[in-house]
Amino acid sequence: MTTESGSIRADLAVVGGGVIGLAVACEMQKRGRDVLVLEMEEPGSGATQAAGGMLGPIAEAQIEEPEIITLGLDSLARYPEFVRWVEKTSGGETGFREEGTLIVAVNRDHLNELEHLKETFRSKGLTADSLTSEQVLDLEPRLSPRVLGGLKIREDQRIDPRRLAACLAQALVTMGGTVLTGAKVHDIVVNGDKVSGLVALGNDGMPVRVDCTDVVIATGASRWDDIRMPAEDPGIRPIKGQLVRLRGETLLRHVVRSPDIYLIPQPDGELFVGATMEEMGYDMAPTAGAAFDLLRFGWQLLPGIYDLEFLGMAVGQRPAVDDHMPVIGPADTKGLWLAVGHFRKGVLMAPATASYLADWMESGEMPEALASFAPGRLSPAPAGES
Ligand SMILES: Cc1cc2nc3c(=O)[nH]c(=O)nc-3n(C[C@H](O)[C@H](O)[C@H](O)COP(=O)(O)OP(=O)(O)OC[C@H]3O[C@@H](n4cnc5c(N)ncnc54)[C@H](O)[C@@H]3O)c2cc1C
């Protein structure tokens, strides 16, 4: 709604239309708030656009902190209902699939890594089925006959993040919320000790003013100082990820991972081979080296990719902070909330992030599940304290 002064009025403004911002916006609109999302490009055009879409808290348990595994499992458990709701409300399809994930070995080094992984699962109370090479090839006959064995994780699933973002944006609008595209927020306005709105620059060069009582920052890996913000920088930095996009004959049903790479069949016939992890600042250039490595490892696992059409590379910036855990909760200024730093798992963690952040915004009480992710943990200790 536009006021007499030309401002847009909303209860809540969400800055950033990635999978996190859109999930939070939908959850709050569902709970009766009037929500406006401001997105400087198109919904889903940040890291969300490049994401593989694995919903895999278990496959990566070896390298994750226990808190991340717990939040990931919590979020994964919410997915079937989350998808049912968003598809029904938007009328779209998210590409959610529940075939599970295979982790396979094509050399002895991999086989030893799989043994370690099984140990990790045992120690963390997680489950996976051990598979012989024949069982792996029964499930996925197009994999290399060099496969030595594998694991099946029934719980780890997949979704198409681009479709999910489009569905969330549509669902928000269907519920009466608003998505403003091409609006780059540059200022959070504070009145006294409380947020009272924000200012963005529209694509047409005109300022967009918003009056609201709450703002959620969900800007992914974008530079913190792009926005004049009454909140300390949690130390967001971009971790570049590149993946190869191929198209052609359907070669796989499951997400297939090895210790080197992953292969993700997409609902529209594409196959993703991913992904690099690079400390390259804001460099977004696709590189020959990344394509070379990913295709080489991909071909070792799935020789048939040789004949697929090469569509190009998807490149994105994973939003990370020092401890590689998300930052979810209130900033120092009243009415300002953060939902950033989801690093490698933002798609997986969107439903739980949205639900717990909404609980916190409504009740003023920190949900126990967010205790490890609250913004305060990253503030420098006051002088004199160790
Ligand atoms: C190659 C790759 C593969 C990945 N694979 C997976 C996977 O399999 N599973 C998984 O769970 N995660 C995966 N991820 C991670 C996942 O993509 C991120 O964690 C997730 O997208 C973070 O979502 P977000 O909404 O916080 O950020 P983003 O998706 O980056 O969205 C932020 C949005 O904010 C907008 N924005 C920024 N600043 C402003 C501003 N000032 N004003 C208005 N708008 C602004 C941006 O344009 C952008 O659209 C992958 C990432 C990469 C790069």
From TrEMBL:
Pathway-wise, it operates in:
Cofactor biosynthesis; thiamine diphosphate biosynthesis
Q: What is its EC number?
A: 1.4.3.19
- What does the UniProt keyword field contain? Oxidoreductase, Thiamine biosynthesis
Q: Which residues form a coiled coil?
A: none
The record's Pfam families line, in alphabetical order, gives: DAO
Q: Does the keyword Oxidoreductase apply?
A: yes
| Positions of the FAD dependent oxidoreductase domain | 11-360
Q: Name one GO cellular component term.
A: cytoplasm
One BP annotation, GO:
thiamine biosynthetic process
Q: Which GO terms describe its molecular function?
A: flavin adenine dinucleotide binding; glycine oxidase activity
- The EC class name is oxidoreductase
Q: Which residues cross the membrane?
A: none
Say yes or no: keyword Oxidoreductase present: yes
Q: Which NCBIfam families match?
A: thiamin_ThiO (TIGR02352)
What's the protein here called? Glycine oxidase ThiO
Q: Which species is this record about?
A: Candidatus Polarisedimenticola svalbardensis
